[in-house]
C-alpha cells in the first residue's frame, strides 16, 4: 500500500523540516510515524522575551521544544527570591521538572524571542507507547536533563568563582556544538544576573570572574559575546586540575 500524499506546506512548518528535529526526534523515524507526531504537536505563536510557558504549581499539561530562542527555568522562594535552576537551548525539552509529581516546581521564562512547539503530554504518552524509537529517544532526553542537573550541582560545589564560571562556559559550549552552533564564539542569551543566580554567586563576583578570565587570556568578552581564546585553560579550570598537574601531564602524557 502506497503512502498518502504529503502536504509539503504543512510539513515545512512541522517536524520534517524543523531545524532541530534531529535533537528531539529519533534518527530514521518513518514517514507514517512522523505524520502521527505532527498531528499532536501544537504550533504556538512566537513567544515574547520574558513570557512564561508555565508557572510553579501548574499541572503538567504539555512539554515544549524551542525551535529557536532560549529559556530559563526559575524557582521562586517563599521570600520572593529567584533561583535559576536551568537554561534551555533550541531542541531541548522544557517542562520535564513536572514528570515526577505531575506539577511544575518552577516556571519557564523566555530569555529571548522564541518559537516553540507545544506537545500535549497525554497524547505524547499514547504515541510514544506505540513507537519504541520515540520512547527510547524520550528516555535519552530525560537522561540528558538529569545529566545537566548533575553538572549544575558540580558547579555549585566548586569553591572558586572562576572555576564555576569556567565550568558553566565549558558546558554551554558543548551544548551549543550539539545544536550545530559555534562552541568557541558564544552569544549568551542569558544576562550576567541570570548566570549569578544559576551559579549561586553575587552579580559583582560573576562580573569580576569574567574580567579575570579575560585578563588571563582564557576568554575575550564584548557584551554578551564571549570568545573562548584558550580552550585548554578553560578545560583545566572546568575540570579543576591544578596548573602544575596539568603541566606534568603535558610533559609525560
Mean pLDDT: 81
**Rg (CA only):** 20 Å
- Kindly give the count of domains: 2
- Strand line-up of the largest beta sheet: 1-8-3-6
Overall number of strands: 11
Structural class: alpha+beta
Order of helices and strands: HHHEEEEEEEEHHHEHHEEHH
CATH architecture of the largest domain, by name, is Sandwich
Strand count, sense and closure of the main sheet?
4 strands, antiparallel
CATH class of the largest domain: Mainly Beta
What would the CATH topology of the largest domain be? Jelly Rolls
The named CATH superfamily of the largest domain: Jelly Rolls
* 3D shape: globular
Instruction: Extract low-pLDDT stretches.
Output: 1-12, 243-253
The assembly state of the depicted protein chains is single chain
Distance N terminus to C terminus? 60 Å
In percent terms, what proportion of residues is strand? Answer: 15-25%
Number of helices: 10
How would you explain this protein's 3D organization?
This protein has helices at residues 8-12, 21-24, 31-40, 121-130, 132-157, 161-178, 192-199, 203-215, 231-239, 243-252; strands spanning 42-43, 52-54, 62-68, 71-76, 82-88, 93-94, 107-110, 115-120, 185-187, 219-222, 225-228. It has 253 residues and is of the alpha+beta class. It has two domains: 8-145, Sandwich (Jelly Rolls), CATH 2.60.120; 158-252, Orthogonal Bundle (Arc Repressor Mutant, subunit A). Helix 6 packs across helix 8 and helix 6 crosses helix 9 (231-239). The chain starts with 7 loop residues before the first helix and ends with a helix.
Amino acid at each position: 500500500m502506497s503512502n498518502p500524499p504529503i502536504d509539503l506546506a504543512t510539513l515545512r512548518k512541522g517536524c520534517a523540516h524543523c531545524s532541530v528535529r534531529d535533537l528531539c526526534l529519533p534518527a530514521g523515524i518513518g514517514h507514517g510515524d512522523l505524520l502521527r507526531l505532527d498531528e499532536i504537536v501544537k504550533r504556538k505563536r512566537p513567544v515574547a522575551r520574558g513570557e512564561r510557558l508555565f508557572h510553579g504549581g501548574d499541572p503538567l499539561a504539555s512539554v515544549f521544544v524551542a525551535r529557536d530562542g532560549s529559556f530559563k527555568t526559575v524557582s521562586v522562594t517563599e521570600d520572593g527570591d529567584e533561583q535559576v535552576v536551568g537554561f534551555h537551548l533550541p531542541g531541548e525539552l522544557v517542562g520535564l521538572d513536572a514528570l515526577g509529581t505531575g506539577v511544575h516546581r518552577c516556571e519557564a521564562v523566555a530569555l529571548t524571542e522564541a518559537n516553540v512547539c507545544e506537545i500535549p503530554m497525554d497524547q505524547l504518552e499514547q504515541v510514544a507507547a506505540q513507537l519504541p524509537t520515540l520512547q527510547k529517544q524520550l528516555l535519552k532526553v530525560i537522561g540528558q536533563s538529569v545529566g545537566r542537573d548533575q553538572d549544575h550541582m558540580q558547579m555549585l560545589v566548586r569553591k572558586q568563582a572562576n572555576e564555576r564560571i569556567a565550568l558553566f562556559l565549558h558546558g554551554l559550549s558543548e551544548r551549543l556544538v550539539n545544536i550545530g552552533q559555534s562552541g568557541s564564539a558564544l552569544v549568551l542569551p542569558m544576562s550576567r544576573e541570570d548566570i549569578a543566580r544559576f551559579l549561586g554567586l553575587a552579580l559583582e563576583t560573576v562580573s569580576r570572574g569574567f574580567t579575570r578570565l579575560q585578563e588571563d587570556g582564557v576568554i575575550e568578552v564584548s557584551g554578551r559575546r564571549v570568545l573562548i581564546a584558550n580552550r585548554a585553560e578553560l578545560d583545566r579550570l572546568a575540570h579543576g586540575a591544578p596548573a602544575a598537574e596539568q603541566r606534568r601531564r603535558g610533559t609525560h602524557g
